[in-house]
Fold this sequence. Notes:
The protein contains 19 helices and 15 strands. By secondary structure, the chain is α/β, with parallel strands linked by helices. The chain is globular.
Amino acid sequence: MASPGSRMLQLAALPLFAALFAAGFGLTWPPVFLVLVAGSLWLSVRALRRRDAGTERRVCVLVLGDVGRSPRMQYHALSLSKHGYTVTFVGYLESKPHQDVLNEENIKIEAITEVKGVQVGPKIVSYVTKVLVQSLQLLLALSRMETQSHVLMQNPPGLPGIAVAWLVCVLRGSRLVIDWHNYGYTIMALSHGRGHLLVRMAKWYEHFFGPLASHHLCVTNAMKEDLEKTWGIRATTLYDRPASIFRETPLKLQHKLFVQLANTYPQFRSSRSEIPETVFSVRNVTDDTVTLKSTRPALLLSSTSWTEDEDFSILLKALEEYEGFVKGGASLPSLVCVITGKGPQKEHYRKLIDALSLQHVSICTPWLEAEDYPVLLGSADLGVCLHMSSSGLDLPMKVVDMFGCCLPVCAVHFNCLHELVKHDENGLIFRDSRELAEQLGSLLSEFPSSQGRLGAFRENLRASRGQRWDDNWDQNVLPLLRLS
């Protein structure tokens, strides 16, 4: 059976054949041509809007980025599937999505290829060609599908996704839902400056096309207020919540992951060669029990997309200062700092890391599979977040996941961070590398004892564990889909 997209192309070709037919019989072809153009367009739209019994249970989840590095959109897809929706997940397939997404029969991933612009000439030419090719790519991908009741898309990136998705929704009678994680133009401004032509064009684009969606979700109350005040958009706040996979990791599972990582990263290897042992843990071969070493280093963890909105030089300088504390005689543990993630600035920071000369701090930068990341979070002693919101209106999901694992956090300050991190309750907020170094020294001064501030923060997180993603989604998103 021909797809809606191919039917549309076939119908759009009718005016050409009609004009040739009219010319052959000596008819005045312009009026005939215009009538048939209108007729073929009407038939094309009608074909695109063809609905069946399953239309209202089909949703497209769209992210113009890597599906595997879009956890919130993966959670959307899983929640939709749990409620009986058939989900077409459109995005780049560069990193492996979570196994739950891959195993779910109701979720089909429609992979699209990341587009590169023209690599010669001015950058603006490269950018414009990239946008044009992406627009055609998305238009074809979305029009080939069966009619969807909703298209749920992430912004950013929203250029050209919002405009294309809106157009397809208009043609097909679907409803567009935008999940505002941030503003795309503020992210562009980090590298180009707010006055740059591309940034101003991107701001106009979001301002013009954003309000055309049927429904809006956003990640903070601060963003909800800004969307309504600045652009007249009424959004529903859907706070990021940890999925059930984020929890404190049992000792045996910790040890298994440490052994696995030790095969690649020497920071996890014990100075002794016994197989059941890592730098953090040891397994008793007699009764198969696992214990953490009293002399183990503290495990510090941060995750990143290695982009401009995270300045990892702050962490590196803080680690150098921490090294100075230890050399100066402070009673502090050694540190193993694990920074996970992929992104454009990773090689830049790896060169800076390699240039460091540290004896009591070791750093590694692995990429973890989706199943291993929550296990490592649940095994860590302290998390660090360097996310500096480009708009001051979004919250770092990595901290949400850390809190799901009852992992205390040191996070760099920005305007609405207080909606998530409560200073001196579930973590600490810092403004520069010196303050972060002092916080590391203070929190780890009694390590590995569970007493002290670090232990108190963890107990507070255990006691205040709130809603998980599923309940939060059911309360805030499901009603929007059912009512529209």
